[in-house]
Structure formats: structure tokens, C-alpha cells
Design a protein that fits this description.
heterodimer, A: alpha/beta, Rossmann fold, eight-stranded mixed sheet, 6 helices, 26% helix, B: alpha/beta, TIM Barrel, eight-stranded parallel barrel, globular
Chain lengths: 206, 265
């Protein structure tokens, strides 16, 4: 059972639909106790970084940190991945989880921002044995839509280039994040979600 | 590895009464099949996105068919946009609940531009496409300053608004639109090519992606709209429905022309 964290910004239907397609049941919640006791956590995110402030106010932030420290598999998508960093210049007052170093910043490119559409991912040296990307060839295409990008720091397992190089996948122990939308990235995206589910299943079998 | 984003090929399903239809210049509709089946077919044959437009919802003054959207969304794992008859935040919410990733608004945005902001604040700009049906003004294709004179229409091309298409695109962006879907009413259904000058005028006026629509009839038309038209994405309906073009074949041609596309897909 996958627990999808709802923070009242955007749309969870697509993510849920993808897990359903993979044969995974899911539940949607904004209750910190449900989050704390979840078997598997997913934070789908769209919209402004400041919306994650609601997670702190409601106690979900602390519950997520608790769950992570106890080994609960946790996947952040889009803003959900950015939230795993220290913060974002999109909302400097709003604190991220600080699981990865540095802050997200707006693209500096002269190309159109937001970065919308299909772009490629490339493993980093650290990402050669990534669980999330198992069976996913380098240069696979995935679907992005974002204006802020995360820095390439320790824990980044894949990067993407949009004029600038940015982090498109992060992974450390039981924490995973993707800047793109795996639920909208065709077979590649479904494979990544399946890899996460497989990791979670192995972990709970232990 | 590419250094930028790929150009997107979008398959569009024009739907009325729950069936996909195709007309010429917005009239004379013929049946092209079931939306859910066609959407799945397009997504698995290489389309980068699927758009479903309920083309008579506004003119019939009825809400969009939610059950068709839900059924269509179920098996699509590429971005899925729905438009036609979205008049309020509640209409948009219902479509997102049914599985849409983006909504496209046209008439309602012209009548109430605040709706763009309202939906963007709740669901994010990436989820809001403002669709502009534009028609060149007769006898004034290009003004003295070299700008294109085109007017935005509403209700599926039935009512002229007096709004300049380029200006309206700019305003839509400033109000929170994440993308512009620009349909040339002059070219739509003709299969004689996109309106590249108009597309380029809009694409240069805004900093958000512009999807060109109307007139696709051959692979060369796509090459033109990505090169001369500066489009970020191109949308077509009939050429995909009736199998004139395989999306992968089209993408191979674009790749040979040096246009970055998602291939293999």
C-alpha cells in the first residue's frame, strides 16, 4: 500500500493512476499520523515551492522525517524532489528537508522557462548502480515541467541538460527523488515507478 | 545527449457526443473513432502528448463529458490535456480529478481572463493551456511594422472577439498560462501547412511554449513549423487518425532535418 501525501497543491490523479496500472494500491492523505505509519511514501508535487509550507504547518514534515529515519521508502516527484533539498530561491523562507545539499534556483538560461517537454537523463558516476534507474538506459526520455532546478550534489544519480546541467534523479538509502514526472513519461516512467515499488517490496520483506 | 528540450508532436482528438470527429475548417464533421482507443493508439505509437477537445461543449452550452475523459485517461501515461467547455475552476477541478494533466481554456478565458490566474494558482501554470483560435484579418496579413494581424475567435471559431491574437497570447502568459495552443482557422483542416508566420509571431512574443495547430498535411509541414514557425510543439488530428503518417516515421524525418525529437519512443 502506497501512501500519497496530499498538500492541496495540484493533482494526484495521474500519479495514483500510474501506481494502479502497476498493480499497487494507494491511499491519499494529509494526516501526519497516517504518514508516520505509512509503509511506502510518495510526495507528488507541482506548483510553487511555498506550498510545501503547508507540510510543515500540518506536522506532515516532521512525520516524513520520522518515517525516513525509520527506513520507510520515500519518493518525491518534481517539487517533491526539490523539497528534499535545503530549500529553493522560489520561496526562501520555506525550508526543505535538507536531505541533499544546496538550494534549487531558477533557470538562468535564455531558453524558454519553464522547461516543458521531453528531455534525456544521464547517470552520474554515483548513479551507475541506481536502484531507481535499474534497466533504464542512459539518454532515455522523460517528461519535465518546471522553472526551478536542483543542483548537482552528492546523492544525485542522474542529470539532465537544459542549457545548464541540473539534477534529474536523486537517491540515498531509502530516499528517492525525480525532477520529471514518471507518471507522464511513458514506459520509461512506469519502469522507474516499478523499480521504486520493487525496492519497497524487498525492504518490507526483510 | 541533447542540450535542450525536444520538439513535441501532439495528437489531438476532436470529440463531440463522445466520438472522435474530423472536419474541415471547424465544420462538416465525420466520425473517426472511439477517444479512449485512439488516445491509447497514439500514445503507444510515439505521440508525445494527447489532447482531447470537446469541440461542441461551448456551442451546446453543456459541460464536457467527464466519463469520456476518465475512460480516455486511464491508459495514457504521457501528458493528457482536455479542453472545451471549461468555464470555471470547478469545471477544471473535475477534469483534473478525471485524469487530465492540463486543461485548455479558450472562450471562458476571453470572457473572464481572471479564470486563467484562478486555475494556475490552484493547479500550477503548467496545468493551464490557453487556446487561441486565430484568423488572419482580410487584406491586412502583415502590417506596416511587419506584425501579423490576426484576430482571436471564441466558441470553436464561431464568434469574432476583436482581440489581436499576439496581444492576447501575451496577456494570457502574464495572467499565468503555462502554454499557448495556437490554431490557425485559415489553415485548419486544409492539410496545406501550418500558418508559420503567425506561429512565429506568437512564439517570439511570449516566453512560454507555443503549440502550433491547424493545417498539418505532410512531414514537411512539421519541419516548417518547427524551423520557420519557431513552434515548441505541433498538434495534428486527421493525419494521425487516418494513418497517413506514422508518428515515429514523422519523427525520423524531423531528426534527419536536425530537429530534436523524442526518439526512440
Amino acid at each position: 500500500m502506497i501512501t500519497l501525501i496530499d498538500y492541496k497543491a495540484g493533482n494526484l490523479t495521474s500519479v495514483r493512476k500510474a501506481f494502479t496500472h502497476l498493480g499497487q494500491e494507494s491511499v491519499i492523505t494529509d494526516d501526519p499520523e497516517v504518514v508516520r505509519n505509512a509503509k511506502v511514501l510518495v510526495l507528488p508535487g507541482v506548483g510553487h515551492f511555498c506550498t510545501t509550507e503547508r507540510l510543515a504547518a500540518s506536522g506532515v514534515r516532521d512525520a516524513v522525517l520520522d518515517a525516513i529515519s525509520r527506513g520507510t521508502p520515500f519518493l518525491g516527484i518534481c517539487v517533491g524532489m526539490q523539497w528534499q533539498y535545503a530549500g529553493s530561491t522560489e520561496a526562501p523562507e520555506t525550508k526543505g528537508l535538507g536531505l541533499f545539499e544546496g538550494s534549487c534556483e531558477r533557470f538562468q538560461t535564455k531558453l524558454k522557462v519553464p522547461h516543458v517537454g521531453w528531455n534525456q537523463i544521464q547517470r552520474t558516476v554515483e548513479g551507475q548502480n541506481s536502484r531507481l534507474l535499474e534497466g533504464v538506459p542512459d539518454e532515455s526520455f522523460v517528461y519535465f515541467t518546471h522553472s526551478y532546478r536542483a543542483p548537482v550534489v552528492a546523492g544525485v544519480c542522474a542529470v539532465t541538460v537544459y542549457d545548464e546541467i541540473f539534477a534529474s534523479c536523486v537517491e540515498r538509502d531509502n530516499v528517492f527523488g525525480v525532477q520529471f514526472h514518471p507518471e507522464k513519461s511513458g514506459d520509461t516512467g512506469l519502469r522507474i515507478l516499478k523499480n521504486f515499488c520493487n525496492y519497497a517490496a524487498e525492504r518490507s520483506a526483510r | 545527449m541533447s542540450i535542450g528540450i525536444t520538439k513535441r508532436i501532439i495528437a489531438c482528438l476532436d470529440v463531440t457526443k463522445g466520438r472522435v470527429v474530423k472536419g474541415v475548417q471547424f465544420v462538416d464533421l465525420i466520425d473517426a473513432g472511439d477517444p479512449a482507443e485512439l488516445a491509447h493508439l497514439h500514445a503507444t505509437s510515439g505521440a508525445d502528448e494527447i489532447v482531447l477537445l470537446d469541440i461542441t461543449a461551448t456551442s451546446d452550452a453543456r459541460p464536457i463529458l467527464i466519463d469520456v475523459v476518465r475512460r480516455t485517461a486511464r491508459q495514457i501515461f504521457v501528458p493528457f490535456t482536455v479542453g472545451g467547455g471549461v468555464r470555471s475552476l470547478d469545471d477544471a477541478s473535475a477534469l483534473f480529478d478525471a485524469g487530465a494533466d492540463k486543461i485548455s481554456i479558450n472562450s471562458a478565458a476571453i470572457k473572464n481572463p481572471g479564470l486563467i490566474t484562478e486555475i494556475a494558482e490552484r493547479f500550477g501554470s503548467q496545468a493551464v493551456i490557453v487556446a487561441i483560435d486565430a484568423k488572419r484579418k482580410t487584406g491586412a496579413a502583415v502590417s506596416a511594422e511587419g506584425t501579423i494581424q490576426a484576430e482571436a475567435y471564441l466558441a470553436g471559431g464561431r464568434i469574432a472577439t476583436g482581440l489581436d491574437a499576439v496581444e492576447w497570447a501575451r496577456e494570457a502568459e502574464s495572467r499565468g498560462a503555462g502554454e499557448i495552443l495556437l490554431t490557425s482557422m485559415d489553415c485548419d483542416g486544409t492539410r496545406a501547412g501550418f500558418d508559420c508566420p503567425l506561429t512565429a509571431a506568437v512564439a517570439k512574443a511570449v516566453n512560454i511554449p507555443v503549440i502550433a495547430s491547424g493545417g498539418a498535411g505532410s512531414g514537411n509541414h512539421f519541419v516548417d513549423v518547427f524551423k520557420a514557425g519557431c513552434a515548441d510543439a505541433a498538434l495534428a488530428a486527421s493525419i494521425f487518425h487516418f494513418g497517413i503518417h506514422d508518428v515515429r516515421e514523422l519523427k525520423s524525418q524531423l531528426q534527419r532535418e536536425g530537429i530534436p525529437v523524442r526518439l526512440p519512443c
